[in-house]
């Protein structure tokens, strides 16, 4: 069975940091683009960041640029999203998703989705 599993969410105060992880099971992430998405209560799911396999290109939504960093460790079959300077508006369930090779901004282009991990930023 091919799955991706998120971990590392939690609660943090504004200005704090968290790192969420996306681990693959049943397949290697080497040939896949991995996207991070988030969904806050009452809002649509939005793309946050993505890392392509093809040339390693990375993408960020404007609201997280300079604060979030995406990276991959192929040896551990895991992709990370380091989140610094967190704000209350970053509160959401964070999902990772995989699709072959290149990033896409379209949710339906992704083949494998995790169950999500909650990130809460509150004082």
Distance between the termini: 40 Å
Low-confidence stretches: none
Mean pLDDT level? 95
Main structural class:
mainly beta
Q: Please outline the major beta sheet.
A: 7 strands, mixed
Shape descriptor reads globular
Number of strands: 11
Q: Can you count the helices?
A: 0
Give the amount of beta strand, in percent.
over 45%
- Reading the helices and strands in chain order gives EEEEEEEEEEE
Computed CA radius of gyration, to the nearest angstrom: 13 Å
User: Helical proportion?
Assistant: under 10%
Description of the structure:
It is a single chain. This protein has 123 residues and is mostly beta strands. 0% of the residues lie in helices and 50% in strands. Strand 7 and strand 8 form a beta hairpin.
């Amino acid at each position: 069975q091919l799955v991706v599993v998120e971990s590392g969410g939690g609660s943090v105060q504004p200005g704090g940091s968290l790192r969420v992880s996306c681990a693959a099971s049943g397949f290697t992430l080497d040939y896949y683009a991995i996207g991070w998405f988030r969904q806050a209560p009452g809002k649509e799911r939005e793309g946050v960041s993505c890392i392509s396999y093809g040339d390693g290109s990375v993408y960020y939504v404007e609201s997280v640029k300079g604060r979030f960093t995406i990276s991959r460790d192929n040896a551990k079959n895991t992709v990370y999203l380091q989140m610094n300077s967190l704000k209350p508006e970053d509160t959401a369930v964070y999902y990772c998703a995989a699709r072959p090779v290149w990033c896409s901004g379209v949710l339906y282009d992704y083949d494998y989705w995790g169950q999500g991990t909650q990130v809460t930023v509150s004082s």
